[in-house]
């Protein structure tokens, strides 16, 4: 089914990803309708319609279901049940969301699809942490099954004596314990998939994190990482197909000496794909709109020889005057208000020629 320009796209979540989706939608002539509980949601500022409501507000979701032509979401920490109201209009479907928002289901699903993951165990009590250390050895990282992002909801156990502290640091919540992966780089595979199975990949960015937060994405990746991309793409596509995913899907990988290890999946556009706005013929945001509206794929070719994207985190956004003074730098500021530490406030991209 083709949803033609002029139609309305509902977007659940109004952060920077929703904002960039709405801008891409507007370019193609769509109107976007944002639903977000934050009255100054970044995406609402650039969209035709805005409902300020909780993600489980059934009345607001019903109204959105009746008024939009197609719907999508921009982050995965959403209650799944209420979203069922959107029915077939929602892409990706709630299945992608259900798997991606629970780290235990996600790991099991990736393994079922033949993807390599770090050895892991389910954790429900303090004793499980000690058993995981005994079985997997140190270091391990505890990650809450739900609601974690940007390194939040994680605690490392680097020595036997640290188990109790780590368990309390993650709030004694249902978790997984994951063996520390000895990786030499991190990279992501971003693909877009259509209802009929057509799909495309962008070049993989090599990603650098600090404190669990993405700092920089660089395309092309190093030659060592490039050797792992074919295998990683195969795994990512198998995951997308098994999910019946429609739209953009991101799979984050560790490049290890044993090959690519899946860290996690995001059923959506991703920070490590922001470089595609200026660095690729078609951005991840436009392609997501094309995929969920049934338009043909745009080219994912590079515009130049590559791109470097740096996040503006917290106070860094206050340096905007120096950044806009660099004529070849593409500056994006998300309009999010207070620049709290660790908050993604914007990003800059330099396309390499
Ligand atoms: P995540 O929120 O799971 O993406 O984790 C944030 C960052 O923590 C990752 O990008 C890695 O840099 C690091 N990390 C997470 N899990 C592991 C692991 N099992 N081994 C080594 N580093 C990890």
Task: Characterize the structure shown.
- The chain has 353 residues and is of the alpha+beta class.
- The protein has helices spanning 16-27, 58-67, 80-83, 94-100, 103-112, 126-136, 163-169, 223-243, 276-279, 284-293, 320-324, and strands spanning 8-12, 31-36, 49-52, 70-73, 120-123, 140-144, 154-157, 175-179, 183-193, 199-201, 205-210, 213-219, 247-256, 259-266, 306-313, 330-333, 344-352.
- Helix 1 (16-27) crosses helix 10.
- The strands form three sheets. Strands 9, 10, 11, 12, 13, 14, 15, 16 and 17 form a nine-stranded antiparallel β-sheet that branches. The chain has a four-stranded parallel β-sheet with strand order 3-2-1-4, with helices on both faces. Strands 5-8-6-7 form a four-stranded antiparallel β-sheet, with helices on both faces.
- It has eleven helices and 17 strands.
- Strand 13 and strand 14 (259-266) form a beta hairpin.
- Adenosine monophosphate (AMP) binds at residues 118, 141, 151, 178, 180-181, 186, 209, 212, 252, 263-264.
Shape: globular
Main sheet record:
9 strands, antiparallel
SSE run: EHEEHEHHHEHEEHEEEEEHEEHHEHEE
Rg over CA atoms? 20 Å
Q: Quickly give the structural class.
A: alpha+beta
Instruction: Please give the number of β-strands.
Output: 17
Write the layout of secondary structure elements.
Elements: E1 8-12, H1 16-27, E2 31-36, E3 49-52, H2 58-67, E4 70-73, H3 80-83, H4 94-100, H5 103-112, E5 120-123, H6 126-136, E6 140-144, E7 154-157, H7 163-169, E8 175-179, E9 183-193, E10 199-201, E11 205-210, E12 213-219, H8 223-243, E13 247-256, E14 259-266, H9 276-279, H10 284-293, E15 306-313, H11 320-324, E16 330-333, E17 344-352
Parallel strand pairs: 1-2, 1-4, 2-3
Antiparallel strand pairs: 5-8, 6-7, 6-8, 9-10, 9-11, 9-13, 11-12, 12-15, 13-14, 15-17, 16-17
Helix pairs in contact: 1-10
The structure holds adenosine monophosphate.
Residues 118, 141, 151, 178, 180-181, 186, 209, 212, 252, 263-264 line the site of adenosine monophosphate.
